[in-house]
Every structure is written in structure tokens, then in C-alpha cells.
């Protein structure tokens, strides 16, 4: 059994909690976010325990009490600028990588006109090959933030390491990419910034593992998590990844956190993105993350999976009509 504890618990409240457990013969061992209980746990009075100051939740093993939906009506809303994940349809759009100040500013205005609500752009790129474009680095973060300000859009940017976190002070939302979904030190450090976190599913992760990573962030005291499905590895060659639509209703039934989808990485082909995007919205996605470039053929990173601003505008128009039907 695990007790999740408020990171801001007072020393006196923590002392009272240990004393209560000791008095009934329960051993408490510190673990991530709380205490793991051993011994005479059958003597626990759960109403008394959960009423103690600083106790957030009590759960068995991998029950993930903070992520878990407790009732059908429970539904978290995560606000990033004027965008409300979990309340309204939210479109995150922008290039895979920030290439220059002029490029990101140009695309920021284009995606804003096409109906986007949040501007994306990577500055440090986790590439499979060390010989491909690795991003423009710290300077690009400033370009991204300035472009967002001029276009009137909040920004989201992927962070790769704990050491880089101080560079992201002006970014509105931090992205934890698929390759870092189980980088637990990064999850805790990103949570400690207090910024909203966009948590992508790992390319080989189960739903349980994905939700457990979200639990790390919530257990660190940051409730503002948005889950992003981007497909998992598969044996077929028709698309870059397998985007299983059953994931959406499964995850939404288990957690109160907002869930969006990145069809660009799932497809790996911009021609497939609009159709897949409509399908995932119909299946319950609360938003989309779309790679957009005004010149995909010259993009320094993942150009083939990007769509143009015109395609994004048409897609958002269809999603609006789809929403009216649903």
C-alpha cells in the first residue's frame, strides 16, 4: 500500500503521520512521492488516514491514485495561455524544429490564422542519427517565445535534460517527448517548475506505463498534465507508427487528465494526417498536435510529415463541423 504525500507537508504533520502509523504497527518506508506501507496494514482506518493533513491519496501498488478517475464526472482542465485543454478543442501547431527567427515568426502567424491555439517548435532535437539536424539550441527558444508573443499564441517546447530546464523560463508549456517518457529525474524536475506538462506516450510504452509517468508529475505536486498519444512501434510499413484508437476511450475511462493526439508522428506522412486527425477527434481526442511548415520540402527536420498552413486551416474547419455533429 502507498500513501501519497503533499510535497509541501509540514514537519509536524509528517511527524503525526509517522506516529499514527507506528502506533498501529505499520512500517512506513519513503518512496517517490510518499510512503510505502508494510506490516499490519489491515489495522489502517482509511477515513482517518486520508483525513490527516498532508495525505493526498492512499492506493494499492500500481493503482496510481492521483491520475486515476474517481468518478465519471471528474475532468481536469489544464490552461495554457487562453487555451483550455480538457474543456475546448485545442490545436497545437508549428514546425518540428525552429530553424530561424524569421521561419518561426512566419509560421506562427500562419498557424494562428489557420486556427491554432498553441505554437510548437523544437530547439533541441532528439534525433535517431547523430548526423542529422540536432536543432538550433538555446537561441531558438527565444525565437519561439518571441514569435508566440507576436502572433498571440502561447508556446510549447520539448525539453531533453534536467540541465536545460533553466533555459525554458519563458516557455508556457514543457513537452516531455516519447524518448523521455520514463526519464523520471526529468519528470520530477519539469514538474517542479510548476509549468503545464505535455507528456507524450513512449513508442514502446503500455498505457499503464504512460499513466505511471504522469503519476510521477502529479506526485511531485504539479497537477497540470496533458497526455499526448503519438502511436507505438509496429511491424507494418503503411505508417510510421501504430495509432490504436482504442487507446483513447481506454485512457479517458481511467484518468481525469486531458488526452490529445499527435497524428503527424503516427503517420510520418503529411498526406495521411488530415484523415487520421478527423478519426481521432471523432474517437474522443480533446485536441491535436500537428506539425506545420510553409515549405515542407525544405524543412530541416521531418518535412515529409508536415502539412501546410492551408491544409491546417481546412482541417480545423472540418473539425469544427465534426464537433457540431458530435
Description of the structure:
The chain is elongated. α3 runs parallel beside α4 (about 140-150), α5 (about 185-190) crosses α6 (about 205-220) and α9 (about 275-280) runs parallel beside α10. It is built from ten helices and 14 strands. The chain has two domains: about 1-60; about 80-325, Aldolase class I (TIM Barrel), CATH 3.20.20. The strands form three sheets. It has an eight-stranded parallel beta sheet with strand order 13-12-11-10-9-8-7-14. The longest helix is centred in the C-terminal third of the chain and has 17 residues, at about 310-325. With about 325 residues, it is an alpha/beta fold. It is about 35% helix and about 20% strand. The chain has helices at about 10-25, 45-50, 100-115, 140-150, 185-190, 205-220, 245-255, 265, 275-280, 310-325; strands at about 1-5, 25-30, 35-40, 55-60, 80, 85, 90-95, 120, 155-160, 175, 195-200, 225-230, 260, 285-290.
Amino acid at each position: 500500500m502507498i500513501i501519497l504525500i503533499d510535497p509541501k507537508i509540514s514537519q509536524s504533520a509528517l511527524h503525526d503521520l509517522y506516529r499514527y502509523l507506528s502506533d498501529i504497527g505499520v512500517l512506513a518506508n519513503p518512496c517517490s512521492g510518499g510512503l510505502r506501507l508494510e506490516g499490519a496494514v489491515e489495522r489502517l482506518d482509511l477515513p482517518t488516514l486520508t483525513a490527516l493533513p498532508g495525505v493526498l491519496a492512499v492506493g494499492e501498488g500500481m493503482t496510481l491514485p492521483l491520475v486515476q478517475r474517481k468518478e465519471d464526472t471528474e475532468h481536469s482542465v489544464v490552461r495554457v495561455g487562453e487555451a483550455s485543454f480538457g474543456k475546448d478543442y485545442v490545436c497545437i501547431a508549428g514546425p518540428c524544429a525552429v530553424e530561424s527567427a524569421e521561419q518561426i515568426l512566419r509560421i506562427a502567424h500562419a498557424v494562428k490564422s489557420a486556427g491554432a491555439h498553441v505554437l510548437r517548435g523544437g530547439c533541441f532535437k532528439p534525433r535517431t542519427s547523430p548526423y542529422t539536424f540536432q536543432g538550433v539550441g538555446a537561441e531558438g527558444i527565444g525565437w519561439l517565445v518571441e514569435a508566440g508573443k507576436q502572433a498571440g499564441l502561447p508556446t510549447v517546447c520539448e525539453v531533453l535534460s534536467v540541465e536545460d530546464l533553466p533555459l525554458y523560463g519563458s516557455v508556457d508549456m514543457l513537452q516531455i517527448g516519447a524518448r523521455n517518457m520514463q526519464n523520471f529525474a526529468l519528470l520530477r524536475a519539469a514538474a517542479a517548475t510548476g509549468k503545464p506538462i505535455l507528456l507524450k506516450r513512449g513508442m514502446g510504452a503500455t498505457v499503464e506505463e504512460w499513466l505511471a509517468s504522469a503519476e510521477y508529475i502529479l506526485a511531485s505536486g504539479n497537477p497540470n498534465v496533458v497526455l499526448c498519444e503519438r502511436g507505438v512501434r509496429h511491424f507494418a510499413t503503411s505508417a510510421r507508427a501504430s495509432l490504436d484508437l482504442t487507446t483513447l476511450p481506454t485512457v479517458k475511462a481511467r484518468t481525469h487528465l486531458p488526452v490529445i493526439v499527435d497524428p503527424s508522428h503516427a503517420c510520418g506522412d503529411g498526406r495521411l494526417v488530415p484523415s487520421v486527425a478527423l478519426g481521432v477527434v471523432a474517437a474522443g481526442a480533446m485536441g491535436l498536435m500537428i506539425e506545420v511548415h510553409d515549405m515542407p520540402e525544405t524543412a530541416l527536420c521531418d518535412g515529409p510529415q508536415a502539412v501546410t498552413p492551408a491544409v491546417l486551416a481546412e482541417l480545423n474547419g472540418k473539425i469544427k463541423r465534426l464537433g457540431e455533429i458530435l
